[in-house]
Amino acid sequence: MRIAVNTIFLQKNNLEGYGYFVQEIFKRLAVKYLEHEFIFLFDRDFDKQFIFSSNIKPVIIKPKARHALAFKFWYDVKLTLVLRSIKPDIVIQPYGFCSLTTKFPQLLVLHDLAFLHYPKFISKQHLLYYKKFTPKFLKKAKHIATVSEFSKQDISNQYKTSSEKISVVYSAAKPVFATIPYVLQSAVKEKYTDGCEYFLFTGGIHPRKNLLTLLKAFSVFKKRQQSNMKLVVAGRLAWKNNDLLDKLETYKYRNDVVLLGYVKEEELVNITASAYALIFPSFFEGFGVPPLEAMQCNVPVITSNVSSMPEICGAAALYANPNSYNELAEKMMQLYKDETLRNKIIDEGKEQCKKFNWNTTADLMWQTILKTVG
Description:
single chain; alpha/beta; Rossmann fold; 2 domains; seven-stranded parallel sheet; six-stranded parallel sheet; 14 helices; globular
């Protein structure tokens, strides 16, 4: 079987959500199924680290696809022409877009419909593109994969798509996220928070991640607890972050907030494993990886009670309304004051995170590939 995979997000030193998803799945599938040929489709020069096995053939299709007009040209013109020469049995489209002009069967991976539920959190140009073409992509794709039962139901309801056409292929956290020795935890705290305990947020600094509510909740926590607890934010500055940065300039507890920016994975593991708790108050997630990363590190989780988070976290988290900073603060204080509860959440997390791993995800993707090929 000849399997073409859109790998434009496999970029060295810039491997975030989509890129991790593609890397972890297809490096496993390529190595496991050496009898099949995998064609990796890049839109720029690629790094050889992404050619995981001898049965992978890289193909570069330029120009780069990084804005609405370029998306249309790359998917419907350049990609279609290349696919005619490759003649794949299936084309994997992992980023929510697909070609509307090719005749080869496509497996579309649509992680979530955040743009529909929170349109203000996306640029106008991209919003118009998503709204216009997503229904066409869903109709064109032979089969659809998504990362949670929540997203499956959401896609089915919003676009009247048969649930039989949608398969759930859960995401996962990397195995590298794990507990670390107490001595190393102490060193991490000394490095970043002068030895103090800290709440942690990880992920891109973006309005959908709801950091303004987290700052308000942290203020309430600090006022009521009179604690030296810090708040550490690890993640790159993404879209529309000026409001957050402006608020921080006059924030009463600014000296207790540590903005780390983008952190390399090895260091992020240490920062996560040393945290008192992970706070993940996102308004909307199709899956949500950071809570699982924390669970694998034996770190308790407080997260939103909306979208996919209850499905992914189960009984292994405390939940709060993402629109209520008081409710989020209450959960932070509850965890801080009740060590028995904190230990219970940690123990629940040890079991919950075992339900999601990349080997299982790769197997689910393979079954979905076979279903698409028919």
